[in-house]
Amino acid sequence: MNENAKDMKIEEAKKEVKKEPVSEIYVPEKPKEKRHMGQKSKRRISNIVIYVILILMSIIWLLPYVFIILQSFEVSYTGNGGNIIPHEWGWDNYVRLFTKTNFPRWFLNTFLMALAVSVLQTIFVLSMSYTLSRLRFKGRKLLMNLMLVLGMFPGFLTMIVLYRLLNDMNLIMENAIFGLILVYVASSGMGYYVSKGFFDTIPRSLDEAARVDGATRLQVFYKIIMPLAKPIVIYTVLTAFMAPWGDFVFARYISNNTSSSYNVAVGLWSFLSTNDGMSNYYTVFCAGGVVVSIPITALFLWLQKYYVEGVTGGAVKG
Q: Could you tell me the pTM of the whole model?
């Protein structure tokens, strides 16, 4: 009996071993599919809302510029305003701008200032940035902190002192262009922050290798670092070139009602500063605004790639 019971147990164990587990097939649940589709729809709705907001913001931002461009082609302007689309189209305002006003002189003054400032300021800013990035000298941090604190004060606080100084140097009124160039360039070294951050991203081993080969600091700067720093050079040139085009307060102060020394900002303001300026010169003012924006817009679009690289590269380190 014991042997039979053992044989029965052995056979039952063999039967249990031969049984294979049934593999389960995964079937996704319907509620999970609904939840997944719900997330997609929510993401799509949020993207649509963001795009609509961005489009509305772009329209609001571009509407004044479109209005100025359209008004520059208005021939039969009565001074009442309120018309976005011109009643009569023509180039009369542009012809009048260059033949009946002193705008060509103002444009030339501003262009010469922007050209001189962009060259000199780029040299000063890049030299200061490279020095603070690569050299370690006594008082370096104190100098950086001092320039940072001084940069927080608004520039118009020094207008009276600068006017007296430029007046003693005979650099106002007829010679206001040279005075403005001197003021724009004199404090340009304080704007080293972005350029220094870009130079900090360039490995110091390049400088050390060049110095071992016998290169001077000046040769390292111009022959090794500058070719690698093309984006920040373009960024510095662009920012320096755009500054004289938009300056009004100090340029108006230094020129002292001398029309031959106006820049374009002060010159266009003079169109509307008279009693009948709004009725007689408004469309000419719009034409001048369009002409002034063309060089800056073209230059920015041409060098936009390097401008963005300079900003993002300089923001890595400070």
A: 0.75
Mean pLDDT, range 261-278, rounded to an integer = 84
Q: Which residues contact 256 (CB under 8 A, 6 or more apart)?
A: 172, 173, 176
Tell me what pLDDT residue 275 has.
Answer: 72
Task: Provide the percentage of residues in the chain whose pLDDT is more than 90.
Answer: 15
Task: Judge contact between 217 and 228, C-beta under 8 A.
Answer: no
Question: How far apart are the two ends of the chain, measured CA to CA in Å?
Answer: 93
Q: Match 């008004």 to its residue by tokens.
A: 71
**3-class DSSP state for residue 60?**
helix
Tell me the H-state helices in the chain: 2-18, 30-71, 92-99, 103-134, 140-151, 159-168, 176-186, 193-200, 204-212, 217-220, 226-228, 230-246, 249-255, 264-272, 277-280, 282-302, 304-314
Residue 36, CA atoms < 13 Å, CB-side half-sphere: 6
pLDDT, residue 105, reads 92
Beta bridge partners of 89: 74
Supply the pLDDT for residue 57: 93
Query: 204-212 long-range CB contacts below 8 Å, 24 or more apart?
Result: 204/134, 207/134
Residues 162-177: tens digit of each pLDDT: 888 888 888 888 888 8
Q: Cα separation of 41 and 33, whole Å? A: 12
Q: How many Å apart are CA 62 and CA 68, to the nearest integer?
A: 10
What pLDDT is recorded for position 5? 59
CA dist., res. 89 & res. 73, Å (int): 5
